[in-house]
Amino acid sequence: MKVMVTGATRNCGLAMIRALARSGHEVVGADYRRLPLNLHSKYTKPYYLYPEPEKEEFFDAIISIIKREKPDVVLPVVDTRQFSRHKKEIERFAQFLVPDFESFSIAFDNKTTLEECEKIGIPCPRIFNESEAVNDLQKNGRRSEPVKVVIKPRKDIGGGEGVSFVENIESLKKATDECESRYGKSVIEEYVPGDTESMRTLNLLFDRKSKLAAYFTTRKIRQWPTTGGISVISISTNEWGLVEMMLPFFEKWQWQGPAEVELKIDSRDNRPKLIEINPRFWGYVGFPIRCGVNFPGIACVLAQGALAQDGAYPDYPVGVKYINPSAYIKVIASDLISSKNRLKAIAKIITDLKGKKVTNNIQLSDPMPIIGKILFEIIHSAE
Q1: Beta carbons of 219 and 200 less than 8 angstroms apart
Q2: Does the reported pTM lie above 0.85?
Q3: How many CA atoms lie within 13 A of 54 on its CB side?
Q4: Considering the chain, what percentage of its residues have pLDDT values greater than 90?
Q5: Beta carbons of 292 and 286 less than 8 angstroms apart
Q6: What whole-number distance in Å separates Cα of residue 280 and Cα of residue 203?
Q7: Which of 60, 150, 282, 329 is the right S-S partner for 189, CB 3.0 to 4.6 Å?
Q8: CA angle, corner 76, sides to 70 and 81, nearest 5?
Q9: Are 127 and 164 in contact (CB under 8 A)?
Q10: Least confident interval from 158-167, 194-203, 241-250
């Protein structure tokens, strides 16, 4: 099978490319950014650069690449929104699996996601308007334990970018202004208390009939930034109850393709609460791949019309740890510098590194994109 992967220089895209190549598929790579020296995976000899997804030229460029390469399936990574927006037009030339744009838009907007989930009984944090948030924060002077509210972009950004946790009115105004100046409209939400290990992620994949075909669940151990962001260390779990809790949303919106769900176990009542739904493949897709759940391979089969079988999900081991090496260095450096108990911090590091571990499908035998990404980070950090 010939598969075109967009976002081919990203962690997610590279993990998918390597998995597909190992399975014997021919891979075409494409991205809207170029790494220094035009470095890219050795598995993507056909490699294309296209305009940024929000530009008018994006659609014509994607169609041009598809017409030239004639892939059997396209796997969108960083431009899922545009593939969903232009779904009917692009489906004339290639097969791919993404939700219809109405459904995608519900999950893409953090405010409407919570509103829709609340309607169907999925536990969520409260949404505040500005005056409600101000009134709640004003009461902190009389509380023994101040409450927080969360300000975040309404649109799916990822990586904890634009998210702030505030306890007073002045910080609320400042955080809202900063968020909206960078990312557009924001939403104010109730803060769900709990530590990093109360965070859960669900990786889900649905067929064309909106039936669940594969899932993978994890518990976070470390994240960066520490207040909330990307997984630095997480561990594989098998929490079917959390998956089952979320299925009504995807059934209602006739979901097709991938989705990542973030949940948090509320320390006040020990109930899981929805944090957000990301309507796309997730950056650490190499983790489930290394555990035996080959999401890109399954997505290719589903895109060609195969249907999920009731209750037949790929099995995977529980207790395997995922580690993001570069982010982990930042975490432990921050921990060691800020910790009042260095011995305790070191003991935590030792505990982190115990047990079986995998990375995001990194292959030293495919070094060019690794070198390119290091150079890319150096160049952009110096700007």
Answers
A1: yes
A2: yes
A3: 0
A4: 82
A5: no
A6: 10
A7: 150
A8: 125
A9: no
A10: 158-167
The dihedrals phi and psi of 97, each to the nearest 5 degrees, come to -130, 100
Joined tokens for residue 182:
């960078």
Alpha carbon distance 168, 226 (integer Å): 21
Q: How far is CA 184 from CA 76, 80, 150, 175, in A?
A: 24, 19, 16, 13
User: Sign of the CA dihedral 343, 345, 346, 348?
Assistant: positive
Query: 284: which 2 tokens?
Result: 């650490």
Chain-centroid distance, C-alpha 184? 20
